[in-house]
Each structure stands twice: as C-alpha cells, then as structure tokens.
Amino acid sequence: MNRGFQAELERVLLYTAFCVLVGWLNGYLTWTLVIGGAGYMAWTLRQIYRLDIWLRDSDTLDPPDANGIWGDIFDSMLRLQNRQKREKSQLQAVLNRSQETTKALPDGVILLDKKGNIAWFNIAARRLLGLHEDDQDHPLQNYIRHPSFGRYYDSGEYQESIDLPSPHSQDIRLQYQLTAFGRGEKLLVVRDITRIYKLEQMRKDFVANVSHELRTPLTVIRGYLETLAMSPDLPDTMQRAFEQMDHQGKRMTSLINDLIVLSKLETDDDVSADQKIELLPLLNSVVADATALSGNGTLSDDKAHVFELICDEGLKLRGSQKELQSAFSNLVFNAVKYSPVGSAIQIKVSSNENGLNVAVNDEGPGIDPIHIPRLTERFYRVDDSRTSSTGGAGLGLSIVKHILLRHDARLGISSTLGRGSCFNCHFPSERVVR
Ligand code: ADP
Question: 216: left (phi > 0), else alpha (psi -120 to 50), else beta?
C-alpha cells in the first residue's frame, strides 16, 4: 500500500474514532457520525474543486498544497504534466527540424488536406508554382489547371508521376508526384525537370533527324543495287554479293522506318486519334499480310503457318486505325518470324465489363522468363545475332508498347519455353465502343 493512501486511511479511522467519541459523550452517536461523514465529504469535494481549478489553468498556477492521498494525486499529476510538456517540446523540435529540412529542399513539397486544399507548402513550391502565403486553404487545382493533372489527381493511382509544363511558363517542365497518406490527405512533390526534358527532346530530335537523313541515300543505293543485280553478265560470286547487299539494305530500311515510327510516337504528345475502329476487318487485313509474309519467306505456300482469327463482328475500339494496325501487325509478324513453319497462330479477341483483350498466341520456341521484363526496351533482342534470318532490330515491341500506352492499354507477355508465347493487349472499357 502506498504511503499517501495509508495516511488517508489513518486519517479516516482517527476522524471516525473522534466522531464516535464525541457522539458517545453527547449521547447523539448516529447524528454525530452523519454530520462527521458530511464534513469529510465536504472536505473531499473541496479537494476536487481545487484540483479542477488547477487543471484548468495549470500552466500559470502552482499545484494546491495537500497531504495524504490528495497530496499524492497532485504530485502525480504534476509529474505527468511535466513529462507531457517535455515530450511536446521534443516533438515540436523534431517537427521544426523536419519543416526546416523540407523548406530547404530544392523540390516543391505541398501538403493537401482531405478536401484537396493546400495545408502547407515549402519555399521551392512557392517558386515553382508561384504560390503565396494566403494561398493556404485554397484548392490546389485552382493553381494547377492542366486537365491531365486533374485526371491524375482524381484517378487515385499515384504509382507513377506525371510531367507537365509549368502553369507559368511553357519553357519550364515540372514533374508531379502525388502520395496519399493519413485519412485522405495527400503530399505533392514538384520537381523541375526542364534540363532532363530538354536533353530527352534533343535525343528524340537527333534520332528522328538522322533516320530521315539516312532514308534518301539508302533508297538511292538500293535502287542502284537492284539495277546492277539485274545485269545479265554478272559473275556468280558478284551475284551472291549483290544479294547480300540487297538483304542488308532491306534490314537497314526497315530499321530506319521503325526508328521514324518510334520517334513520331514519342514526340507526338497528343493522345491517339479518336476514330471508331472495327476490329474484325482490321485483324483480317493483318492476317492477310501475315499469310503473305509466312508464305513468301523461304517457305513454300503449302508449308505456311495456320492462322485462326476469333473475333466477334461489331467489336469496336476508340483510337487510331493506323497505330493499332501497326501494333497488331508487329505482334502477328513476330509470331510468324519466331515460330516454326506449319505451326498454328491464333488471334483471339475477347471482351467483358473490364475491357477488351486482343491476344496473339503462337506455338513457337517460347521466351525465357528472364527476358520478358526487358522485351519492350528499345533494341532488346533475345537472340543477339543481328544477322540471323529473323534479324529484326529489337524495335517492334517497343513500338507496340508506345502505341498501347497512347491507347491507355497494357501489353501482357506470357510464355513457356518450348510451348509458345502469348502477347495480350488489354484495352480498358473506356476505349471500347459499346
Ligand atoms: P525484333 O525486331 O527483333 O523482332 P521485337 O521488339 O519485335 O524485335 O522483339 C524483341 C525480341 O522478342 C525478339 O528479338 C525475339 O527474340 C523476342 N520475341 C518477340 N516475339 C516473339 C515470339 N512470338 N516468340 C518468341 N520470341 C519472340
């Protein structure tokens, strides 16, 4: 038992004994005990009242003087209060320090409350977005009015950042990264990426210009090669050399064409055209081209691949006819290039409430899982021998990925070594014309 409680117990016992003695002496024992009890209650109430007064203004008032259990209670509360004050000031120091650090960051940091209003921002955010002190408590979207930012904010999917021109100047490029935390609050980090953006732009322009400049001389060289190859008195050895030159010329032309397509897709920021494209005729024409490729290669017609197209009539997608034709052709032509003659290639279109899938299945050699995550990188090839008969440059799937991104779609690749591969294009339901 603690000392305060023991003292209080002794006080109550002594007081009761005193009341009993007085009651016995005056002959009114019950009344004396009742009055004595009431007195003790009044004294206890007074202590509670003093405690209440002190708690209300404990920052300025000293704790009341008391002994016994009440003295213990006041002391414990004082200790608790001092500890709380100490912790509060430590926490405040941490908070101040983290605010100082965030203030000094070169990136803009903006805290948003659950309504999307600005709760706090650092100096860099002020500089990058032109915010002022009195912009606090106003909706962020009043300051960043770009429709893409609105869509990004509303989507709730913040794994990726988005790049947009600054609200003040088209010459400044900003990267926005939202993070949700707490109960619906958000943190926006704004980074100035103008320099990286300009370098990336220069790289794209360089590739686009070089590809264009190479196309004309290559056409001239291939023209002369064709004429020379038809010359009747050409020796056999030269004939083979011309065939090789022609083959390599074709590869270079296809590489340059792919590079031009890719840089067009990269530089054209606009989302793809909003045509309503009927899938059955489009895929029929892709299959017709692939059949020609399959039969016209080194194979004879009777040994060509077996194509199967499963697609309901009337299925339509919103997008660019030219781009989608290019994406599906790339996938079906790859199936022809990489699977053995006589094997089956299936193009299957299925749709449900989540969207629409166009899957190209083949019975080719399959792809080792370690290559799959890198297949859509530019110039990535599983078989590195660029002179092999299938010899593409590794740009096809890169083009497919870009086209699908522009259609809000995803490319899924699954494959089993020795069994075949499946390249699936998933379009969200907003892209499907119902
Ligand atoms: P390429 O021009 O080399 O075909 P792609 O970007 O179209 O370039 O394909 C990249 C690599 O992916 C290819 O080099 C090939 O190794 C592999 N690949 C693509 N499609 C298939 C397929 N259907 N079956 C097996 N491998 C494939």
Answer: alpha
Question: How far is 208 from 119, CA to CA, in rounded Å?
Answer: 45
pLDDT for residue 71 is more than 90: no
- Homologous superfamily of the 271-433 domain (CATH): Histidine kinase-like ATPase, C-terminal domain (3.30.565.10)
* Site residues for ligand 1, CB cut-off 6 Å: 330, 334-335, 338, 362, 364-365, 367, 375, 380-383, 392-398, 421
Which residue, among 279, 356, 364, has the nearest Cα to 324 in the 3D structure? 279
Q: Ligand 1: distance of its center to the CA of 398 in Å?
A: 10
| CATH fold for domain 105-192 | Beta-Lactamase (3.30.450)
Name which of 357, 338, 399 is nearest 347 in CA terms: 357
How is residue 152 written in tokens?
């990004």
* DSSP SS3 for 375: coil
Q: For residue range 84-107, list pLDDT tens digits in order.
A: 999 999 999 998 888 888 888 889
Alpha carbon of 342 to ligand 1 centroid (Å): 19
**Ligand 1 atom closest to Cα of residue 376:** 6
**What is the identity of the amino acid at 348?**
K
Tell me the pTM: 0.68
- Across the beta sheet with 275-278, the strand order is 275-278, 316-319, 432-433
- Going from the Cα of 322 to the center of ligand 1, the distance in angstroms, rounded, reads 21
Measured from the CA of 397, which atom of ligand 1 is nearest? 6
